[in-house]
C-alpha cells in the first residue's frame, strides 16, 4: 500500500526532526557517564574538603577565645571560597561529560519549536494511549531492571564493607573515614557501570523507535524530492524562460554583427570581429525558426549575409555563442570577412550573397 511507511527517512526529514527535538536519545547515558567521571574526581574533592574542614576546626578555638566579628566573617568567607574551589572540578566534570553524552547522541541543538504552545498537547487521548502502549511498557521494564540492578550492586558492595565497619571501633578515625570513602566510591563506580549498560540498551531501543516513527511513505519521499530538487514541470518552465532570455540576448547582438553565415535556409550564424579583442566571435546562432529570425534581423539592419553551407553547419555545431571561433575556422572565416569587406567597398554589402570561395553543397 502507498500509505505504508516503508522508506527510510531522508536527510531533510532527519534535519527537521533534529530541529524539532524528535531524535532518539536518552538522558541516562550522559548522566551515568557523568557519575562515573565524578567518581574519579571525587577522591580529590573529598581530600580537599577534609583539609578545609581540618583548617576550619583548628581556627575555631582561637576564635572562641578571641571573639572578633571581622575575623569570624573572614574565616567564614575563606571556608566558603574553599568549598567552592573544592567542588568546582567535580561540577565541571559532570557538566562536560553530560554535554558530551548529549552531543554523541545526535548533536546539541536547542529545539525552539518545543517551546511553542500546541493545543493538541492538551488532548488527553494521546497521553492515555501512551500509558498503555509499548513505550510505557518499556519504561516500566527499564525502571524495574534499573532498581533491581542498583539493589544488587548495593548488596554486593555492602556485603564486603559491613564486616569491616563493624570492626571500625578499633581503627583510628582517619582510617575509618578512608574505609567509608573507598566503599562509597566503589559503590558509585559499580552503579555507574551498570547504569551505562542499561542506558546503552535504552538508547538503542529509543533510537529504533524514533527511526520507525520517522519512516516515510513512497509518496512523501517523492513530494520531498519535488520540494528539494524542484518540480520537473517547474524546472522545465525555468529552463524554457532561460532559453528565451538567452535567445533574446543573442538576437539583440545580431544588428552589431559583421556578417551572417547562412545555410541559406536552415542555419544562420552571426559573427563579429573586433581585432583588439582577438579572433572573431559567434554572437548568435540557431536553426529553423531561430535562423529565420536572425536572417530577418540581418535584413532589417542591413547586415551582410553570406551563403556558405559547409561553413554555416560547421560553425553552428562547433562553436558556442559568445566564444571565439576555434583555430580550424580561422582561414574560412577570414575569407568570408575579406569577401564582405570587398562588398562594403563597392557599397553593396547588404543582402544575401553566395561565397565565391565556398565548396558546393546541398541545402
From TrEMBL:
Region (Disordered): 1-20
Protein name (database record): Flagellar biosynthetic protein FlhB
Ranges that cross the membrane: 83-108, 137-156, 183-206
GO cellular component, one term: plasma membrane
Gene Ontology biological process terms from the UniProt entry: protein secretion
Pfam families for the chain: Bac_export_2 (PF01312)
Native organism taxonomy: Bacteria, Bacillati, Actinomycetota, Actinomycetes, Micromonosporales
Alphabetical UniProt keywords: Cell projection, Cilium, Flagellum, Membrane, Transmembrane, Transmembrane helix
Keyword hit for Transmembrane: yes
Matches recorded under Gene3D superfamilies: 6.10.250.2080, secretion proteins EscU
Amino acid at each position: 500500500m502507498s500509505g505504508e511507511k516503508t522508506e527510510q527517512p531522508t536527510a531533510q526529514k532527519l534535519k527537521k526532526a533534529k530541529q524539532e527535538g524528535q531524535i532518539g536519545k536518552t538522558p541516562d547515558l550522559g548522566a551515568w557517564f557523568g557519575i562515573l567521571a565524578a567518581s574519579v574526581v571525587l577522591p580529590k574533592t573529598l581530600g580537599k574538603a577534609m583539609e578545609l574542614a581540618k583548617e576550619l576546626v583548628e581556627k575555631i578555638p582561637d576564635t572562641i577565645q578571641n571573639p572578633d566579628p571581622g575575623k569570624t566573617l573572614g574565616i567564614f568567607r575563606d571556608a566558603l571560597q574553599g568549598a567552592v574551589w573544592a567542588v568546582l572540578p567535580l561540577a565541571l566534570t559532570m557538566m562536560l561529560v553530560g554535554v558530551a553524552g548529549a552531543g554523541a547522541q545526535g548533536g546539541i541543538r536547542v529545539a525552539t519549536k518545543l517551546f511553542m504552545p500546541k493545543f493538541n498537547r492538551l488532548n488527553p487521548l494521546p497521553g492515555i494511549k501512551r500509558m498503555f502502549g509499548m513505550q510505557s511498557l518499556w519504561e516500566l521494564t527499564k525502571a524495574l531492571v534499573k532498581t533491581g540492578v542498583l539493589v544488587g550492586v548495593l548488596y554486593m558492595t555492602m556485603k564486603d564493607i559491613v564486616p569491616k565497619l563493624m570492626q571500625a571501633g578499633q581503627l583510628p578515625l582517619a582510617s575509618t573515614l578512608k574505609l567509608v570513602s573507598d566503599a562509597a566510591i566503589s559503590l558509585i563506580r559499580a552503579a555507574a557501570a551498570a547504569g551505562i549498560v542499561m542506558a546503552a540498551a535504552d538508547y538503542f531501543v529509543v533510537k529504533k523507535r524514533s527511526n520507525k516513527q520517522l519512516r516515510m511513505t513512497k509518496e512523501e519521499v517523492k513530494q520531498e524530492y519535488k520540494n528539494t530538487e524542484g518540480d520537473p514541470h517547474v524546472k522545465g518552465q525555468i529552463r524554457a524562460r532561460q532559453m528565451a532570455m538567452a535567445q533574446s540576448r543573442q538576437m539583440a547582438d545580431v544588428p552589431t554583427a559583421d556578417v551572417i553565415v547562412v545555410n541559406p535556409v536552415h542555419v544562420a550564424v552571426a559573427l563579429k570581429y573586433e581585432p583588439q579583442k582577438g579572433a572573431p566571435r559567434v554572437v548568435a546562432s540557431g536553426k529553423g525558426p531561430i535562423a529565420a529570425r536572425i536572417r530577418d534581423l540581418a535584413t532589417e539592419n542591413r547586415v551582410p549575409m553570406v551563403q556558405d553551407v559547409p561553413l554555416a553547419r560547421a560553425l553552428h555545431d562547433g562553436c558556442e555563442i559568445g566564444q571565439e571561433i576555434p583555430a580550424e575556422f580561422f582561414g574560412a572565416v577570414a575569407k568570408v570577412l575579406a569577401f564582405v569587406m570587398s562588398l562594403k567597398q563597392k557599397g553593396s554589402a547588404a543582402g544575401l550573397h553566395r561565397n565565391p570561395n565556398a565548396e558546393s553543397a546541398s541545402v
